[in-house]
Amino acid sequence: MRTPLIEFKDVTKRFRDKTVLDKVNLKIYENEVTTIIGKSGTGKTVLLKHIIGLIRPDEGSILFRGRPLAAMNRREWREYKQGLSYLFQQNALFDSMTVFENVALPLVQTTSLTKSEIAQRAMRRIDQTELSDAAHSYPSELSGGMQKRAALARALVTDPAVVLFDEPTTGQDPIRKNVILGMIAQYRRRFGFTAVLISHDIPDVFFVSDRLVLLWDGTVGFEGTYEEVLDLSHPMIKELLKSLEGLQDEVVGLPMKEAFRSCYAPLFSDGALAPDTSATRLTIELDVEGAVLEREDAAAAMGAVAAHMSHRLSQLGGIVVRCAGGDILALLPHTTVEETNQLIESYAEEIKEQAGAVLTRLAGKNPGPAYSFDFRIKAGVAQVSPEDDIDGIAAKAASGQRVIAAFQGGRKGEGQQ
What we know:
Layout: E1 6-15, E2 18-28, E3 33-37, H1 44-52, E4 59-64, E5 67-68, H2 74-82, E6 84-87, H3 99-110, H4 115-128, H5 144-156, E7 162-166, H6 174-191, E8 194-198, E9 211-216, E10 219-224, H7 226-231, H8 238-242, H9 257-264, E11 277-289, H10 295-315, E12 319-322, E13 328-333, H11 337-346, H12 348-364, E14 371-383, H13 390-399, E15 402-411
Parallel strand pairs: 3-8, 3-9, 6-7, 7-8
Antiparallel strand pairs: 1-2, 1-4, 4-5, 9-10, 11-13, 11-14, 12-13, 14-15
């Protein structure tokens, strides 16, 4: 059995007459994304403050690698604190400092590194978070996405074991929410830290989380994986599960996979499934080199293409939803695998035109240095049978994916021929 990196055991915290945390038990495992969800006032931020040491429990204990925090000596406590980093809700960048100065600040304050060593480590994180061109810019000169990356670079510059994210997507538009959550998942894999998120953004956070903790009236109503949430009938999470019914992805306007289940089930009852039913899974990929296109611009381009394709498939009577990672999954009754393959091939040129128009428009509003992009859309088609479930259908369609449309583009910088 794995030892949790951080564990709460019967933790209780009261403020005057109000019990905010009531015998909370939860486990956070190393190199995973654990997301704490729940209504406002359920103790999510209080729980996070216990991890970082700003608050101590009235009862119970908190363990790090099996060692109670309360039993740590001064050296152990200092090492524990140095392994934690906190990304604030509103980034908390200092307006009077450049990106470089903001990122370097934790090293200046908490280490005895030389000036050149600090500069080297800060620039490495700035490069890794794709902010090299903005290193000497001030926060007010950056877009919202770049500010979030700068805050993340600062949080990672000390090589923390654990990064705590307090509502990282609050106040962001739907596209930027997806971008920020995707960025957290990407950098967690790249840098190997353990991420603990507080979030209200259901269901977006489900797709980047390894484990979910539902706080309900000061206690843990559920702890486990996303799939276990969907299968659980615990009364404390009924309200949460109800919120999944009919959910739509705000970027492309598609129902989420959970809502698909209610549409999908009747097709398989009483022999209602058409003898020729197929499914297709479309994956849109966009790689950008250069600073001209922001991540949120790339997400907007992909969202526009996804919305266009979902509309075309829906016109044919398909049931279309968004899968994990932003893929599109369509179930096409009365359509054979061969017919669906022909249909998808016929859309290839249309996809190129749609994506090209969006990317050109976005690049035009961002004059600047040279850049290039590589756009691809992959499609897979599978036969659907009555014994398949939605996850099985998605997996079958993904296994046969191939590139059906691809093109490269970009712009040369000033002085280039």
